[in-house]
From TrEMBL:
Assembly with partners or alone: Homodimer; disulfide-linked.
Highest rank taxon of the organism: Eukaryota
Alphabetical keyword list: ATP-binding, Calcium, Disulfide bond, Glycoprotein, Hydrolase, Magnesium, Membrane, Nucleotide-binding, Transmembrane, Transmembrane helix
Enzyme's top EC category: hydrolase
Cross-referenced InterPro entries: GDA1_CD39_NTPase
Protein name: Ectonucleoside triphosphate diphosphohydrolase 1
Organism phylogeny: Eukaryota, Metazoa, Chordata, Craniata, Vertebrata
Binding residues for ATP: 197-201
Residue ranges of the TM segments: 12-32, 458-478
Length: 492
């Protein structure tokens, strides 16, 4: 004789099956509905037409999230061969042609079906600022050639223009803080230090900054619901190439035929041409009246003397404000951490001096012994993997960087460690281009976007738990119809 299981009644079996199907259906719908879609991207292209070279950056972001919530990241970069577009003043059409290779690369990287909707921008910085000062019509012609070349590609061309120094500084700051997620989260921001070939920028938020003291250094933003009052300044001619010209001009103002330069290694010697040295608005006014065609440039390798030469390029006496950096430029007290990029990084990385926790005096001593190293030895060690021009200039550039930071911007041995030398943040280059594109595409909203209260996984778990609970409740509510278990075994 078998005992009949009271649960094996048609009603409970039907309820169980329906309940299980309902739970599976509910969870499946929740998972499918909230499953991240197969990623589709949108793209934006920015050309950074710098004084020393042009670089192309391609950015991408999830297509369904261009409404301010998706993360924009750098997908690709391309370094244009040759010099910056301002060097083509005498043959402007070549400025346009120089961009062809990188633009063709962009055509391959951005999927064809996205070409026509991909915005393409070109921003020119200090090299074109200088050309514009020196020769307006040449600068216009370079832009015409560049525009013509860019319009021939299938992207949505949005124009080419010269960025002001203030914009360059501010967009660099936006890039750094966007990539670090500081803007969205409303965290304390990082200041931006950018060293280019022809200009240098400093940008930071200082709570002690009274805008009325120097309104031209202020930029205000409302980003993700937070207000920022940014201090920013760009020093034209204080990029590392132009400042080297100024240092050489200082040492050749009497028109000698030989100079012994403390900023170059002992044993270094080259012949330089007076006309090409003084061919820049940064130094043209100081050209010696009587000078030979060339001069012999010899290295001495003396850091202390080099620092004196560099210091002489900063005027730190005249200041009509409560506080100045140099050349009579207002600067509020430094505040917070700083990210130093472009040539700051290239130079300090080569010199192995990116660790700012090392005492500033030790950093200077290390640089001093590098500068004193004979040129032959330096070439033997590095010439196989570093351009000779860069190699010859690292002693000068390192000295300039330390002098600019300490004597120019007033970093002290205590605050020096607030600086971090950076190249990339989360895979994207630090520089003004990303901030520029985010601004022009309105990708950073003034107010914080609404975000779903729960992440996807949390949402699915809650739905599952609730479904199971409901099912148990349903079973319990059917208690009256549950088959009773009698103590007497049923006889089948
Ligand atoms: N590996 C390197 N080592 C040393 N110097 C470098 C290296 N790569 C680039 N540079 C130099 O660093 C400087 C800054 O380069 P960057 O491309 O940031 O400036 P840029 O955009 O041309 O200048 P600007 O912003 O003033 O117009 C330039 O003088 C460039 O020649």
């Amino acid at each position: 004789m078998k005992e009949k299981n009271p649960w094996y009644t048609p009603l409970t079996i039907i309820i169980t099956v329906i309940g299980v199907i309902a739970i599976v259906a509910l969870v499946t719908v929740a998972v499918l509905q909230n499953r991240p879609l197969l990623q589709k991207y949108k793209y934006g292209i920015v050309l950074d037409a710098g004084s020393s070279h042009t670089a192309l950056y391609i950015y991408q972001w999830p297509a369904e999230k261009d409404n301010n919530t998706g993360r924009v990241e750098q997908k690709h970069s391309c370094k244009v061969t040759g010099k910056g577009i301002s060097s083509y003043a005498a043959q402007p059409e070549k400025a346009g042609m120089s961009l062809t290779e990188c633009m063709q690369e962009a055509e391959m990287v951005v999927p064809a079906k996205r070409h026509s909707e991909t915005p393409l921008y070109l921003g020119a910085t200090a090299g074109m600022r200088l050309l514009n000062i020196e020769n307006r019509s040449a600068s216009d012609q370079v832009f015409q050639a560049v525009e013509k070349a860019l319009q021939s590609f299938p992207f949505s061309y949005q124009g080419a223009r010269i960025l002001s120094g203030q914009e360059e500084g501010a967009f660099g700051w936006v890039t750094v803080n966007y990539l670090d997620d500081r803007l969205k989260q409303g965290l304390e921001t990082t200041g931006a230090l950018d060293l280019g070939g022809a200009s240098t920028q400093i940008s930071f938020v200082s709570h002690d900054y009274d805008i009325s003291e120097s309104p031209s250094n202020s930029m205000t933003f409302r980003l993700y619901g937070n207000d920022y009052n940014l201090y920013t300044h760009s020093f034209l001619c204080y990029g590392k190439d132009q400042v080297l010209r100024m240092a050489l001009a200082k040492q050749t103002q009497l028109g000698p035929s030989t100079i012994l330069d403390p900023c170059f290694h002992p044993g270094y010697t080259t012949t330089r041409n007076y006309s090409s040295l003084y061919d820049s608005p940064c130094v043209s006014g100081r050209r010696p009246r009587e000078a030979p065609t060339n001069f012999s440039h010899k290295g001495e390798g003396n850091f202390t003397k080099c620092q004196e030469v560099v210091k002489s390029l900063f005027n730190t006496t005249a200041c009509k404000y409560s506080k100045c950096s140099f050349n009579g430029v207002f600067q509020p007290p430094l505040q917070g951490p700083f990210g130093a990029f472009s040539a700051y990084y290239y130079v300090m990385n080569f010199l192995n001096l990116t660790d700012t926790s090392i005492h500033l005096e030790t950093v200077k001593n290390n640089l001093a012994s590098y500068c004193a190293t004979p040129w032959n030895q330096i070439k033997q060690m590095h010439l196989s993997n570093v351009k000779e021009k860069y190699l010859a200039e690292y002693c000068f550039s390192g000295t300039y960087i330390l002098t600019l930071l300490t004597e120019g911007y007033n970093f002290t041995k205590e605050t020096y460690s607030n600086i971090k030398f950076i190249k990339k943040i989360k895979g994207s280059d630090a520089g003004w281009t990303l901030g520029y594109m985010l601004n022009l595409t309105n990708m950073i909203p003034a107010e914080a976007p609404d975000s779903p209260p729960l992440p996807h996984a949390g949402y699915v778990s809650i739905v599952t738990v609730i479904a199971v609970l409901l099912f148990i409740l349903l079973i319990l509510s059917l208690r009256p119809v549950w088959p009773r278990c009698s103590k007497q075994p049923q006889i089948v």
